[in-house]
Amino acid sequence: MATGYAELLKTRHAARLLTGTLVGRLPNATAALAVVLFVRAEGGSYALAGVLSAVYGVCNAIGQPLLGRAVDLYGQPRVMLPASVLSALGMALLAAVGLDPLWAACAAMVVAGFFTPPLEGGLRALWPGVLRRPDQVHAAYALDAVAQEVMFAVGPLLVTLCVAAWSAGGALLVINAIGVLGALSVVVSEPSRQWRSEPREAHWLGALRSPGLLVLIGAFFFVGLALGSIAVAAVAYADEHGGGMVSSWLLSALGVGALIGGIVYGAREWPGRPEGRLRLLIGLLALGYLPLALAPGVAGMTALTGVAGLFLAPALACAFVVVDRHAPNGTVTEAFSWLVTTFGVGSAVGNSVVGPAVEGGGSAAGFAVAGAGGIAALLVLLSTKRFLGDPVQPKAGAAPAENDRNGAVEPGFRAGRQA
Fold it and tell me: Taking every annotated instance into account, which residue ranges of this chain make up the domain Major facilitator superfamily (MFS) profile (predicted)?
């Protein structure tokens, strides 16, 4: 298992691209915490912190697919680096002006959120051209999902250390400066500079004209909703069981489960079509969420959350493969960005809807929302099998089908550096 990942990371440019992308995404991964800490340090309320974070999140959701489309049209360096700099300047503006005037703080959040570079989608567009074999690309998607779990665990710690060592405003500056350096590392690399999207058909819907992608967006909205509800329900559970570090144990167990699941999943090549495998993985993910509503003692609950996390990274990795197969020509970065955006929006919705459930029925009701989200994601995939079937194969001598850029069979990865 370790040998396969080591071989992958030894491939030229692979480790650099993965590391640069993770570092470049650090500002986005820590934005919610960093903004809350800054607003509180400036004397603002939690309500104001929530408003500014929501402005950032909404603008990020709008900007990611639009910037992804721009990357597909104009290449990575021309979009990624300017966007990263503008996003960092937005956070720097917030650190400089504080909360007065409020319109300036909101404007800073609009800029920072909208111009967050779509590094995640960009990396997945680069993998097929960087790695030697399709099974390595599959493993890279899994490793990518695993590395994100590590980043989301380390990022908040780094923000907290920066606040303790300097200030909340200083943390905004440091984290975003690091993010720019990460983006710079990616866009000056040879694969990023040479990558070109395939010619695309002019269409205002872009990647969204793919029925398969729309199905994925619908399913992963509910997966995001489930995860967002777990985050809030874990805090409520901790309040019911003595507070302290209980919520951190649950969320850490969830992350460790995802880490283990992703490593195991990416260590081998799986038989069959990824569309069918995705339905199975989402079914297992939903099955893992349902027992959380039992809300047993702390030790049992920690074990349950660990099991619930096992299939998250594999489901994400498999979804990346399916996106790669179904995105229309010349829209792969935009397609990946849509999936990332929808997942984030679903998580935000989960944060919101679980509150009334917790107030009415305690943490068990909150975890039941997560189970319902998992079931809803599975139902979306099962009820739309005809839209998320195998990409249509062209006849002999014909041009590749729109939703399978190589006209290739499983695993459907492209050759060369194009996306």
Answer: 212-419
Q: Nearest 5 degrees, angle CA 278-CA 283-CA 289?
A: 125
CA separation for the pair 32, 273 (Å, rounded)? 37
pTM: 0.72
Check whether 340 has a pLDDT greater than 50.
Answer: yes
At the topology level, CATH places domain 203-389 in Growth Hormone; Chain: A; (1.20.1250)
1-133+147-197: CATH topology? Growth Hormone; Chain: A; (1.20.1250)
User: Three-class SS of residue 98?
Assistant: coil
- Residue carrying the six token digits 């069959």: 272
Q: How far apart are CA 25 and CA 31, in angstroms?
A: 10
Yes or no: say if 221 and 347 are a contact pair by the CB < 8 Å rule.
no
Per cent of the chain over pLDDT 90 is 30
Q: Which two tokens stand for residue 258?
A: 């995802």
Exposed (0-12), middle (13-18) or buried (19+): which is 98, by Cβ within 10 Å?
A: middle
Give CA–CA dist 419/417, Å, rounded. Answer: 7
User: What is the structure's pLDDT at 4?
Assistant: 65
Domain boundaries, the chain: 1-133+147-197, 203-389
Eight-class DSSP state of 419: -
